[in-house]
Amino acid sequence: MSKQETIDLINSSMLSLMEFTRKSRGPIKGFRARDLSILIYIHTDNEHHQVTMSQLAQNLKVTPAAASQIITGYEKNGWVKRVRSTVDRRTVYIQITDEIKEKMLEKWNCHQARLNEFLDMLGPEDCENFHRILEKMIDFVQEKMQEDLYVM
C-alpha cells in the first residue's frame, strides 16, 4: 500500500468514525461533540464533580462571560445546574445533572460494548499491533502539540 493510499484510508476511516459518532450521539437533543467534552470536563475535573466558572473558562480558553453563556444554554437544556458553595456563598459551582450523568453513562457503556466487539473482531495479534500504533500516534500528536505551544 502506498503512502497516499494509507493517507486516504486514514481520512476515510476518520470520516466514517465521525459520522458514526454523530449518528449515535442522541438521545440528547442538540448534543454536539464539544458539548460532550465540556460536560465530561465538568464531571471529571475533580473528585467533587464540579467546577467554577473561571475554571471552565480557563479550560475552554474563553472569557468567563463566554463560559457563562455556554452554561446558561446548558441550564436551559437541563444538562447542568449551578450550586452555591457551602463554605463561601460567593462561589458558584457548575455540576452536570443526574439525568445527563445517566445518559452519559448509558452512552459510555454502549461505546465500551462496541469497542469490545471491535477488539474481539481484530483478535489478539491485530489488537496488539493496533495498540502499538495508537501509542505511536499519541506520542506523535503530543510532540507536535508541544512544538505548537512554542511557536505561538
UniProtKB/TrEMBL annotation:
Gene3D superfamilies: Winged helix-like DNA-binding domain superfamily/Winged helix DNA-binding domain. One of its GO terms (molecular function) is DNA-binding transcription factor activity. Keywords: DNA-binding, Transcription, Transcription regulation. Residues 1-139 form the HTH marR-type domain. The keyword Transcription applies. It holds the Pfam family Staph_reg_Sar_Rot. Signal peptide: none annotated. GO terms for biological process: response to stress. InterPro entries: HTH_MarR-typ, MarR/SlyA-like, Transc_reg_Sar_Rot_HTH, WH-like_DNA-bd_sf, WH_DNA-bd_sf. This is Transcriptional regulator of fatty acid biosynthesis FabT. It comes from Faecalicoccus pleomorphus.
